[in-house]
Structures are given as C-alpha cells and as structure tokens.
C-alpha cells in the first residue's frame, strides 16, 4: 500500500517546541518510527510550513498513485478551506491525525475544516496515532 503522510506548519519543530503537548521526538524520529512499524508499506513523507505547497502536494498525489493519506495539518486544520478543497478534489481517503488532544486545549483548536470529510480523526495519542491510521487503511482498503 502507498500512503502519503503530510505534516503541516511547525511540525518540523517537533522535539523542540511544547514538549508537554507534542512529546520529545523529532519529525525525523517520527518518520523512522513509522518506517519501522510499517515496513511493507510505501510511505511518502512531506512537511511544509506553506499552505500552497501542501495544496500542490495533495493535488499531485493522484499522479503518484497513492492509496491513502494521513494528514496532521497543524494550525491549517483550523483555518484552511484551501486544504479542505484540495482533499475534496483528489478523492483519496484520508485520516486526520493530531499528536496532542486538540479537544482538551484551546477552543479554536476544536474546529476542523477537515474532520467532516476525513475517514476518521485520531487525536491525543502521540506518534501512535499515525501508526493507527496506517493500520486502519490496511484493514479497510
């Protein structure tokens, strides 16, 4: 199975920022963990702090013959209609993942422009949330 894993703004700062919310692991450590947990899957990693780059990456996933997407859109989860429209345009199933429990944080983090069009939402389980999303796709696709 080919799965794209998209991480949005500030996730390149994992391991350095707000460790009480995001843990002490870096983005590279997260990617290595997922490669180890899903060795038979083809994982395509992408991170950007720029909304337009993420939109273009999503658009190009149809050409990449991706089966599924896991996305942690970071702050764009709560602000980006453009990302929502990008997901609707490609019709590739996706799971929204958040490392922290966004529902136990500030009120603005409880709004997601993606959750109602996602196959599911996983929040608050750290890097395990990404692994669970991979397992979900293995069982359903």
Provide structural commentary.
α3 runs parallel beside α4 (about 80-90). This protein has 5 helices and 5 strands. It is globular and about 35 Å long. It has one domain (about 1-140): 3-Layer(aba) Sandwich (Rossmann fold). It has helices at about 20, 25-35, 50-60, 80-90, 130-140; strands at about 1-5, 40-45, 70, 95-100, 120-125. The chain is α/β, with parallel strands linked by helices. The chain has a 5-stranded parallel sheet, covered by helices on one side. Helix content is about 35%, strand content about 20%.
Instruction: Give the overall silhouette.
Output: globular
Radius of gyration: 14 Å
Per DSSP, the total helix count is 5
Q: Strands of the largest sheet, in order across it?
A: 2-1-3-4-5
Strand content: 15-25%
Describe the main β-sheet briefly: 5 strands, parallel
Helix content: 25-40%
Mean pLDDT: 96
CATH homologous superfamily placement? Dehydroquinase, class II
Distance between the termini: 9 Å
| CATH classification, class level | Alpha Beta
pLDDT below 50 for ≥5 consecutive residues: which ranges? none
The strand count comes to 5
Number of domains: 1
Q: Return the structural class.
A: alpha/beta
């Amino acid at each position: 199975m080919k799965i794209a894993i998209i991480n949005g703004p500030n996730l390149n700062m994992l391991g350095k920022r707000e460790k009480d919310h995001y843990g002490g692991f870096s983005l590279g450590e997260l990617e290595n963990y997922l490669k180890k947990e899903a060795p038979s899957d083809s994982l395509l990693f992408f991170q950007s702090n720029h909304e337009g780059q993420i939109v273009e990456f999503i658009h190009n996933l149809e050409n990449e013959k991706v089966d599924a997407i896991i996305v942690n859109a970071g702050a764009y989860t709560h602000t980006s209609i453009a990302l929502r429209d990008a997901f609707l345009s490609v019709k590739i199933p996706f799971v929204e993942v958040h490392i922290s429990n966004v529902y136990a944080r500030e009120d603005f983090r409880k709004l997601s422009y993606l959750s109602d069009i996602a196959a599911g939402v996983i929040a608050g389980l750290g890097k395990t949330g990404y692994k669970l999303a991979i397992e979900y796709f293995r069982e359903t696709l």
